[in-house]
Please model this.
Amino acid sequence: MSLPLIALFIAAFAFGTTEFVIAGVLPQVAAGLGVSVPSAGYLVSGYACGIAIGGPLLALATKSLPRKTLLLGLAIAFTIGQAACALAPDFTSMLLLRIAVAVAHGAYFGVAMVVAVGLVPEDKRGMAVAVILSGLTVSNVIGVPAGTAIGNIWGWRATFWVMCALGVAATFAMAALLPRTAGYQAKPAGLAREVRVLARQQVWTSLILMLMLMLGQFCLFTYITPTLLEVTGLDEDLVPWVLLLNGVGATLGVFLGGKLSDWKLMPSLITMLALQAVTLAVIYAVSPYPLPMIVAIVIWGGLNFAIGTPIQTRILAWTADASNLASSLIPSGFNVGIALAASLGAAMLNAGYGYRSLPVVGAFAMLVAVAVAVVSQLWEARSNATPPLTAPAE
Model:
């Protein structure tokens, strides 16, 4: 892994950790700010909205900036935001600060992925995307448990001070290691061109695949703990270890997806989508049995992130000539999908279907994704279209 990619990974790890660690310290934050735990939950949904809405807007507003300058600015905003969260006097200020950091988060991942694929040869783009995505998975495996432990020992404000220090490290790493001209565009594409590239079928079909992937993942993952407790019958103390194994599987899956993206992107993607449909059906079948369920959950976690890598690589390849808006829609799409999946899961449970029904919804979503991916590939083959060239470097 090249040093510039390591710098981008560190910042991705920082953003991922601060997004997810709030769940680990939510009761302490609620008590410290004088609100109920359900009210404190808005710190999670507010962050997701900040990514989904604010990220693309900020990316468009800053498209004329050199990308290294923009990435450093976003890392500095992250660092200041963590310090401000650590000092937040009340819930309202904490919520607004979290949303502001989330806007920087959404813009960061869009820009970082474009820069990452610009740092490597064309046949290594998938692995470059995988490195950025691995920042999110590793944050769940290492960052979130560590941040939660720090919060339990020294209080939730200490967690945010550690995040602030991580932001400082990410800022200095990018300042020192990123090439000055990596991933730059000589002339930023106009808004009309940024929008037009979204009409390419490879782009909008990939966004549909992203939505289906989130339904396949978060309809179940949002409620994975009660599913493991009530359906599988696991002891409560074992659930964190299952989630850890799921995170390890996800991290391995990211790099598997990167390798497959650089080898045979669409055939690999279609195959993995079909395998995920089968895996979710297996989860439904084995959910009452602990050992098979744990194995299936780990495989499911690996496939979730293995699939995400080629989807994002494809979007970046087909929007290389006007990438600002499209790349920022990647984290937005994921967060919109997460929100829809969680809501659909809640509707299923409220309708009385039970936790065991959730992987069935995911399996159907994966079958829809297989059909969309096959049609998209056939459409592309018939048109003999090729991805656009990257805009010339500055």
